[in-house]
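Whiteboard transcription, Tuesday session. T.W. wrote the structure tokens on the left side:
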């Protein structure tokens, strides 16, 4: 069983993006966290995440964006997108 943990206090949130049923949080250190419902980029079929969980496949991210049907993360060189 996976038990979510709050974002560590040493992380500072730099940016927030809201989709239709999910949210993204970008830390100053370039980590991305997600919560909500739908395909959240966590590498497994999970339909609901109540507390933010880190998307461990992303690092060094500089900007995030979201809308009802997509999420995007930019690391300065590439833009990674996901559509539901």
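and on the right, the sequence the group agreed on:
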């Amino acid at each position: 069983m996976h038990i979510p943990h709050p974002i560590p206090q040493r992380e500072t949130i730099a940016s927030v993006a809201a989709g239709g049923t999910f949210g993204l949080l970008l830390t100053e250190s370039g980590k991305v966290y997600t919560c909500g419902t739908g395909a959240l980029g966590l590498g497994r079929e999970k339909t609901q995440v109540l507390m933010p969980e880190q998307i461990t496949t992303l690092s060094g991210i500089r900007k995030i964006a979201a809308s009802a049907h997509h999420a995007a993360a930019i690391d300065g060189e590439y833009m990674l997108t996901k559509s539901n």
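Someone added at the bottom: The first strand starts at residue 13 and ends at 18.
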